[in-house]
Amino acid sequence: MNDWPTRIPHPERYEFFALLRQIEAGGHDKVGFGRSLRPSEDDIRLSQRPDLGFQPGSVQGWHYCSRSARHKLSVSVLGVFGANGPMPLHFTEYARDRLFFAKDASLCSFLDIFHHRMLSLFYRAWANTEPCVSFDQPQSNIFDDYLGSLFGGLNGVTERVPDSLFYAGRLLSPVRSAEGLSAILQDYFSVPISIEPFMAEWLTLHEADRSVLSVLRPRSQLGHNSALGRHIYSAQHKFCIRIGPLTLNSYMNFIPSGKNLSSLLAWVRLYTGSSRSFSVMLSLQANEVPRLRLGRGGRLAYMSWLGHWKPKTAADGLSISYSTQAAIPDCFQNIEKVHHD
Predict the structure, then answer these.
(1) Cross-referenced NCBIfam families, in alphabetical order (predicted)?
(2) What is the secondary structure of 15-41 as a DSSP string?
């Protein structure tokens, strides 16, 4: 795109970072300053004119390069020329004499190769630390990676839970609480949700962990680590997510094959990890309970009730349990057991 002098006729009115940000945002087909590997990948070239005067701003103006058929943007920062440059003043005088009196731009053009690269990397270093700049080009939004890396929100996590960055404040906390999980789920799904911790369950012991009378395995001690049988009763590894009372449409979204269930499982696993089991208990508003009729599409164990439901009592009791080995993507593989009280 070579019409930037027409689109921005007075570049000297801009600050250096603001001007390059506007140019980069307008070139959606380009990779951006500081990321390009070839000169042709940039809309414009950055340069510095040899001048000993003190410039009022960081940007000087446009000038056209006939050899490359490309516009150059002259700036007065981070270059080798001028009173603030690293080179001696007589070097700037020599380059200026060659350019304006001898009409020889070879030295300035050679140095502009390094000017363009240094200025591009200088801008990129600034842009990578500015969240607002990343939103100009969502396809190269590096700030999301910075924020997601603080709580493990890498590409795989953000694909399963696209809105995880919005709740980074909750996910950054090293302490996982019932209040934090319920706050995220209620805000995300916009339905009443509460967490009931310490749900008791029977855990199956592996054969190597069972108590036996043996000389080879003298680890079992009465009152310390011995247990009778293949199961132990524990209330430390499971919690319950109570959802509702819901309308019928919302209720159907949380049953297996519902559109919200896979998102719910992904959120729970992201927040709690895979070391705890949990169950989801759904509650349906009393006035939303459908009457059971043959041929009307009622699903057994999910949304079928015999008889006439009392109008003042919510229909609850549908509980779906998920084990610690439950996978996230496929909700049907997550189901350990479904029961209806």
Answers:
(1) VI_chp_1
(2) -HHHHHHHHHHH-TTS--TTT-SSGGG
